[in-house]
Amino acid sequence: MTSTSVAPQKKLFDARHQEGRVMMLTDWVDRWEEKNIGFHQDRIHLLADMGHTIVGVEVSEIAIEEFFTEQNLSYSKEPVPGIPGAQVFKSTDGNISLYHCDFFQFSGTVAEKFNGIWDRGSLVAINPRDRQRYTDLIVTLMEEDCHYLLDTFLYDPSVHKGPPFYVPDHEIENLFGKSCNIKLLESVDALTDRQRKWGLDYFVEQVHLITLKQNSSLV
Predict the structure, then answer these.
(1) Which of 3, 54, 102, 211 has its CA 20 to 30 A from that of 80?
(2) What are the φ and ψ backbone dihedral angles of 184, each rounded to 5 degrees?
(3) What is the average per-residue pLDDT within 141-148?
(4) CA-to-CA separations, 213 to 47, 127, 174, 180, 219, in angstroms, rounded
């Protein structure tokens, strides 16, 4: 997965510009209703095609229903014991289960721990003030041999208020370093016209591999 191209030069910015930024769950639901979903990817997850069992958590019911429609997959839905108002949407073949609920209500009591997690558009969407809470929950969902891929972005947060939010390397270390090993796999220039419209001239996408340290006390 490591890029063969030259990695862009990293720049450090003051993350405090986004400390007070807060997105409510209703804001994300509204974005789906208004089709303001530039973060959305239409293609199905490769791992599902390879036969792996996929579990996702999504706050927007529209997003879940559109996913199954776009992929031409039949599904069923049922309530989730222990989470009032939550539902789980399951593909007929059983390979994909998408939970419609607040992520912070999701836990190991709802689903078993995972040996692989792909975090694309999740940590970078979490309000900065909630990151440690998010990280603590993620760690409890990791099997001992779990490989957790974390996708983050570097840019000037004084220009763009987010989301996606600015998550520098030292923040990842502060969040995960106590219980996890952290390895940078890829760092690439991801600047497109979309980010230029935000006023940015620098936008780097990074992928880190995060694994649990042996005998971690937080698992």
Answers:
(1) 211
(2) -75, 120
(3) 97
(4) 25, 26, 15, 5, 10
